[in-house]
Amino acid sequence: MTKTRYKIITKNSEVPVRDLIRISGDKEMTASLDPFAPDDLYSYCKGLRKPKNYSHPLTREKMIFREATTAESILIASCDFKGRSKPQIFDRQWLRAGLIVKTDEGIFTNPPRYKNGTPKYDNKTLKSYLDKVEPIKIGKGKVYIVPDSENLRDFGFAEYDSFKTGVQNCDTFVKGGLARVLEHTKDEAKNLRKITSIEFYEGGISVRNFNSYQSTHLVIGLLTKEIFSNYLEVYYDSDYYCNRGLVFGVLEKDIENVSKK
pTM for this one? Predict the structure, then answer.
């Protein structure tokens, strides 16, 4: 496994618009260092989400951010979690980590979208992407980590029996199916381990609103936030199209190519 490295790029150097973070390792990306308010990253029109454009201050070339996947959000937040993400984000606000589709059997993460930007949330369609993927047995359930492709990014599925809900310790959480599918990893969720360490949350992690008795087939946002000073809450919210929480933006264009023009 490649070691993750990151570099903070400030507006005083090569960055336009806002400070960015460039991450290399198993994942390569450039993202906003600080998360956006949802309405600042997206405009809403009849439920369709369209990205706003940000311009380079010198070239005026448009720079387009997209919403980070759950795995990307977790990775960005884990970079200097103690010094930056926890005090600046988790202690103050919800982090909306990404899209999830909830069904009777489990949850899909980071569903693909139609051309108009609407996420695909039909259970039959999403299940078809699991064909030929070897499931990982965790507890009494299974987890499917689907390889990235042209249409899929960090897509996966976790059965409810593959993870525990309620208050639990870091070790239980990061080895469970929910953490693995959110981080899009076949092994334990190493980036979530950095975030949910007992060093930061002595009370553990509170996982709630993940069960098969809620309404089905809803596109939802995963929210994480510190509660009561010593718990981290991992929570799902069905009211995704609202301005609640913060969301990371990933740069669609290569910042180096934009800066050199």
Answer: 0.85
